[in-house]
Amino acid sequence: MMKNILNSSEIINIQQVANRETKRKERLINAASTQKRIIINVSGRRFETHKTTLDSYPNTLLGNHRKRKPYYDKVHNEYFFDRHQASFHSILYYYQSKGRLRRPQFVPLDTFLEEVTFFELGSEILNKIRSDENIKDVEKIKLPRNRFRRHLWANMEYPQYSITAKIINIVSILMIFLSCIAFALETLPQYSDYYEKICRQEDELLTNESLRLNLTISYPICTALFYSPFFIIQTITVAFFTIEFLLRFISAPSYCDFIKSILNWIDLVAIIPYYVALGIDLSQRNLDAIQTSAYVGLRLLRIVRFTRVLKIYRVFRSFKTLRVLASAVKESLPDIFILISSLTILGFLFGAAVYFAENSSNGGMFDSIPKATYWGIITITSTGYGDIYPITAIGRIFASLCAVFGTATIGMLVSVLVDRYQRVFTRKLYIKEHDESIELDEYADDDDEKTHAGLEPDWHNKLRNSVNAVDPDARTRKEQEMMKYSGQGNESYEQDQDEVDDNLQENDFSTNIKSQVFIL
Asked: What tens digit of pLDDT does each residue of 164-210 get?
C-alpha cells in the first residue's frame, strides 16, 4: 500500500490557494453588500443606508426606484438631492425606525413640511404632523359679488391689502387707544363730576328764579357737557367706530355670518351707549329728573360704555407677537387649569394645617378653613398682603413650607407654559411675511368666484389641499414613458428602458419642483 506524502512546497501551494479562495469570497460578499447599500447625497452631505430599508415604503420618493431614478448620479454612484440637510436626518430615520417621524426643534416647521411633501412620505404623515403641531386648514369664505364691496371689505379686514387698508388699521388702533385713555381719565375725582356740577348750578339758578317769579319754565340743554374734552374725544371716536362698523356691515360677504360674530356684537355694544346717553342729555330735563326711576335703566347704559375697552382685541389682530401670545394661551388652557388646580390644592392643604395650628391662639384671623385657604393661595403666589399672618411657631413653620412648596410648584408649571409659548412663537416666527399685493380685479362678479382665493397672496392659496398634495416629481418623464407600454409585454418595455433612462436629465429637477407652502 503506497502512501502519498506531500512535501513542504505542495503544502504551501495548497495554503495559498485556500487564502486566495477566501479573499475571493470576501470580495464577493463585500460587493454584494455594497450593491444592497444606497448612498444619498443631500446638499453635500452623504447618507448611507440599505436598499431594503428604503424599500419598506415603496410609495415614497426614496422607496420607489422609478421615482428616485432621476436623481441618480452615475459618476459618483449616488443619489443627489439639493434639499435641507437638517430635515433629512429625521426623514431617513423615518425609514430606519419603521414609521417614526419627529421634527427637530431647530428646524422651522414650514421647511420641515416642505421636505416631507417633497419626499412624498404620504398624507397620513402630513396629517399627523399637522395634528401634533396644531396646524389648521385655511378656511374658504365667500366674497361679495360686487367688485366695489370686495375691495371695501378687503380694505376693512386686511391691513396688508393696500396702503389705504394700512392707514385705516393704524387710525383704528389709535382711536381705540384714545378712547380707552379718555375713558380712564374721565373717572379721576377732579373730572368725574366737574361738568355735572356746572349743569346742576345752572339748574338751581333757574329753579330759584322760577320760584321767585312764580313762573313755570323749561330747563334748557346744559351745554357745559358738550364742551367737555372727554365728550369731544368720545364723539370723535364713536363717530369713527360707527362709520367703520357700517362699512364693514355693508361690505360683509355674508350678513348672516356677520350677525353671528361675537366680535361684531362687541363693536355694536360699545357704540350704542353713547347715543342713548346723548339722547338723555338732549331731552331738556334737569339732572334731578334724570335721577328718577324712569331713567335709571337708561342711565345704566352709560355704565356699559366700558365695553369700548373690549375693542382692544383689534390690537391683537394687528401685531404678530400678540397673536402668538393669544395662540399660546389658547393652547395652554389645559396646563393653566392644572396650574390653578395645583395651587388651590396646596393652598387648601397648608391653609387647613395653619388653621388648626392657629385656631386656639389666633382665631380672629384664622377663623375658618376657607379663610385659611385664601391665606395659603396668597402665600403661594408670593403676594403676601399681610392682612392675615400666623403668630405661633408651628403656624410659621407651615407658612414657610407653604411658601417654599408654592414657589417650586409655580416654577415647574410656569416652565411648561413658557416652553409651550416658545414652541408656538417659533412656529409662527418662521412664517415669512409676504408683501405681495392682493389682486381682486381679475375676479368677475359671478357666483362661482366667491371664494377666498382672491383675498390672499399666492402662498396662502397653495395650501388649500396641502394634506392631499402630491409633489409634481411623482410623475416624471420616465413614468410617462412607462404609460406607453402599459398594455404591452414586459419585453418591449425592457428593451427601451435603457433609452428612457439615458434621456432623463439627471439631477435636473428645477422645472419639476414647485414650492409647497403651509399655513401655521
From this structure: 888 988 898 888 888 888 888 887 877 766 666 666 666 666 666 66
Whether the Cβ atoms of residue 419 and residue 315 lie closer than 8 Å to each other: no
For the chain, where do the domains classified as CATH 1.20.120.350 start and end? Answer: 147-318
Task: Give residue 98's identity as a one-letter amino acid code.
Answer: K
Q: Which CATH architecture has domain 29-137+470-481?
A: 2-Layer Sandwich (3.30)
Exposure string for 483-513, b = 16+ CB within 10 A, e = fewer: eebeeeeeeeeeeeeeebeeebebeebeeee
147-318: in CATH 3.40.50.1000: no
What are φ and ψ of residue 40, in 5° steps?
-120, 120
Number of residues that make up the chain: 520
Q: Please give the pLDDT value at position 17.
A: 65
Structure confidence at residue 81 as a pLDDT band (50, 70, 90):
very high
How far, in Å, CA of 325 to CA of 342, rounded?
23
**Ranges of CATH 3.30.710.10 domains, the chain:** 29-137+470-481
Rg (CA), the chain: 38
List strands edge to edge, sheet with 78-81: 45-50, 37-42, 78-81, 72-73
Q: Give dist(CA 442, CA 456) in Å, integer.
A: 13
- Judge whether residue 250 has pLDDT over 70: yes
pLDDT exceeds cutoff 70 at 431:
no
Query: What's the grid cell of residue 487?
Result: 398594455
Q: pLDDT tens for residues 311-352?
A: 777 766 667 777 777 777 777 788 888 888 888 898 899 989
Reported for 436-440, long-range contacts at CB under 8 A and 24+ positions apart, including other chains, are 437/161, 437/162, 438/154, 438/158, 438/160, 438/161, 438/162, 440/143, 440/147, 440/150, 440/151, 440/154
Burial 220-237 (b: 16+ CB within 10 A, else e): eebebbeebeebebbeeb
User: Residue 469's closest CA among 228, 117, 23, 231?
Assistant: 117
Q: Residues of CATH 1.10.287.70 domain(s) within the chain?
A: 330-429
pLDDT at 246: 92
Choose from 36-45, 102-111, 426-435, 465-474 the range with maximum mean pLDDT: 36-45
| Full-model pTM | 0.55
Q: Cβ distance 114 to 419 under 8 Å?
A: no
354 closest CA partner among 368, 339, 340: 368
- Three-state SS annotation for 87-123: HHHHHHHHHHCCCCCCCCCCCCHHHHHHHHHHCCCCH
Q: What is the topology classification, in CATH, of domain 330-429? A: Helix Hairpins (1.10.287)
Q: What's the average model confidence in pLDDT over 459-471? A: 37
Give the E-state strand segments of 353-507 in sequence order: none
pLDDT number for residue 321 = 72
- Structure letter (DSSP) for residue 387: S
- Select from 123, 126, 145 the least CA-distant residue to 135: 126
Q: How far apart, in whole angstroms, are the C-alpha atoms of residue 148 and residue 155?
A: 11
